[in-house]
Amino acid sequence: MSKSNDKKFDVCIVGSCNVDLISYVDRTPKIGETIEGNKFEKGFGGKGANQCVQAAKLGGKVAMISKLGDDVFGKEYLDNLKKLGINTDHVGITKEAATGVAPIIVDKEGRNSIIVILGANLLLNENDIEKAEDIIRQSKVVVCQLEIRQETVLKTFEIARKHSVLSILNPAPMSEKLNRNLLSAADVICPNQTEAEVLCDFTVETIDDAKKACKKLLELGSRIAIITMGDQGAVISNEDGQYEHVEIEKSSSVCDSTGAGDSFVGTLALLMAREEKLSLKEQVKRACRVASQSVEKKGTQTSYPTKDELRFNLFE
Fold it and tell me: Which residues have a catalytic role annotated?
């Protein structure tokens, strides 16, 4: 790894910004059915920005590389990132497409259904990443997801590796057309159990299934694999070929699970940047605890705890 003392940023996120359009309902409507909802809210989302915001709210020095539309949503989004102290030097604005949006339905159990219209996110290209090389070089950890073009993700990881910057791939949303080279281009792969099933081509329901999936991900070229398993915690495999189950305390009051996976990834990236001496298992355990706390409040980024709101000491 490159020396940490020449690093300006803990985490650089290359990914999506979407405006969440959230409808709260008793139940999800059937096809062709109109139902009355209980409440509507607009929020800031997108997997990339969510992860970025969680790392920033926990006190991380964070940079965002993304693309917004030249519209009201885009302007509001840029202001939101700046207010949180996130570096936005490489958040581009385009007239070619609208800012990404995500209509979300949340039922009374807190379960969600989401449609994502990526818009401007898909215009973030390799050229934009090359222009942002300096930001990537000055970061300890770089993270990508799959709400931007896969070629853009590959270029990001190529630059990260050139400068010995730790890279994390969160393969979400999962695509059947995933470029398998991404698995070896990133240092760490962090899917949830559904995404792991697509990657590995077998069912991942139990902890043993997840351990087999970790083994398969390492065979496919990943160096470290972390599979999140909802309220079962996570399963990890490190470079020594050890497979471990990280158990978590279940949250007693689930209100809204939207964005919990991104809370986990953003926290994990920050811990990997700041707390290199911690074991992978401890880093994952702490990231799970932050994500568990995030489901207790409504919304996405608004539900993410700050460092002061955490019920435990994240950095020690």
Answer: 262
